[in-house]
Amino acid sequence: MSKEKAFEQEFENKIENEIKIEPRDWMPEKYRENLIRQISQHAHSEVVGMLPEANWITRAPSLRRKVALLAKVQDEAGHGLYLYSATETLGARREDTVDDLHEGRAKYSNIFNYPSVTWADIGVIGWLVDGAAIQNQVMLTRTSYGPYSRAMVRICKEESFHQRQGYEIVLHMAKGTPEQKEMAQDALNRWWWPSLMMFGPSDKDSKHSQQSLAWKIKRQGNDELRQEFIDKTVPQAKYAGLTIPDPDLKWNEEKGVHDFGEIDWSEFMNVIKGNGPMNRSRIKARKAAKENGAWVREAATAYHEKKMKRAQQKQSAA
Ligand code: 3HC
């Protein structure tokens, strides 16, 4: 058996036996590329995902809500950093990865291209968007790549707080004044379908699912995760006294799941191609953040270089 074949066999055995693939392990180039693609886009989603919520930190209706939202947005920044670090363990350069986002070469989750127009949106984002993210990320704690799996374990611990604080806002408004309930229903109407799209196209149309499932990067397909999310969320909407904007949504006793209406995949494709309501402003904000933060990076680099130089001088003097 050739050396390459032996490496391939060892890789397959590890996947088969649930042994995590670590950065220094041999891996197929396509495995590495697929991981850099998915993890970098996951990181971009976390960082861009800060924007719709940051918009409401100064407008939160109470100090308690402001503190919770501030903590959530800071968590998302940390999630982005964990995930950018995971891409670096695969040989990706942080600078290039961030440029891919800014130059439109990389995607981020469709969901962050919609505007957060009222405070109820902040509740529904936590409830649905973080709820969908949890559905996906709990599955990813079992992904075959070690650093990604471990990052997911840490991230999931914080996501549950994100979802709970969102659902608490929704319940407060849905059980509040008629105007508050109307705002909560309006937000649910606008965020429901884009949240279902977060799980990606149907498996039959998914470019990556088959290979990602074979390599145990994904442990469940897009449709299965979407269905689990719907089945979990319908009772929560009912408890809040809100109506899910899908006239075809109904319990299917035989299958034990909720049947639901057709997703508008043309909207999804349009948004991920860059034509959503907020795509341009999201990228503009990210580019501005990079420019405005340049002085911090330069100062940190100068400090690090000076420290290294001092250590070298000390070493040569010893
Ligand atoms: N938004 C944007 N693009 C999407 C998408 C979405 N919701 N779903 C799929 N796509 C893209 C894929 O990236 C792929 O395009 P590419 O080849 O250019 O990368 C194409 O559509 C085909 O989709 P596939 O289903 O074949 O792609 P994947 O196998 O990668 O599955 C995924 C898509 C399920 C999103 C998978 O990438 C994944 O699990 N990613 C990690 C989780 C993630 O990124 N979550 C985003 C939300 S993070 C978040 O919500 C933060 C929270 O704290 C609020």
Structural write-up:
There is one protein chain. The protein is mainly alpha-helical. It has 13 helices and 2 strands, in the order ααααααααααββααα. The protein has a two-stranded antiparallel sheet with strand order 1-2. α2 runs antiparallel to α4 (63-88), α4 (63-88) packs antiparallel against α7 and α6 packs antiparallel against α10. Bound molecules: 3-hydroxybutanoyl-coenzyme A (3HC). Residues 37-38, 41-42, 45-46, 49, 76, 79, 107, 109-110, 129-130, 133, 136, 197-201, 206-209, 212, 222, 272 line the site of 3-hydroxybutanoyl-coenzyme A.
Summarize this structure as a short list of keywords or feature phrases.
318 residues, mainly alpha, 13 helices, binds 3-hydroxybutanoyl-coenzyme A, globular, single chain, two-stranded antiparallel sheet
Topology:
Elements (H helix, E strand, L loop, with lengths): L2 H14 L12 H20 L1 H5 L8 H26 L5 H9 L16 H22 L5 H29 L3 H20 L11 H6 L7 H19 L9 E3 L4 E3 L5 H11 L3 H14 L1 H24 L1
Antiparallel strand pairs: 1-2
The structure holds 3-hydroxybutanoyl-coenzyme A.
Task: Give a quick precis of the structure.
It contains 13 helices and 2 strands, in the order H-H-H-H-H-H-H-H-H-H-E-E-H-H-H. It has 318 residues and is mainly alpha-helical.
How much strand? under 5%
**First-last Cα distance:** 51 Å
Q: Report the uncertain regions.
A: none
Bound molecules: 3-hydroxybutanoyl-coenzyme A
How many strands, what sense, and barrel or not for the largest sheet?
2 strands, antiparallel
Q: Structural class per helix/strand content? A: mainly alpha
Strand order of the largest sheet: 1-2
Any idea what the radius of gyration is?
22 Å
Q: Please give the oligomerization state of what you see.
A: single chain
Give me the number of helical elements. Answer: 13
Q: Describe the global form.
A: globular
Mean pLDDT: 97
Along the chain, the helix and strand elements come as: HHHHHHHHHHEEHHH
Tell me roughly what share of residues is in helical segments: 55-70%
Compute the number of strand runs: 2
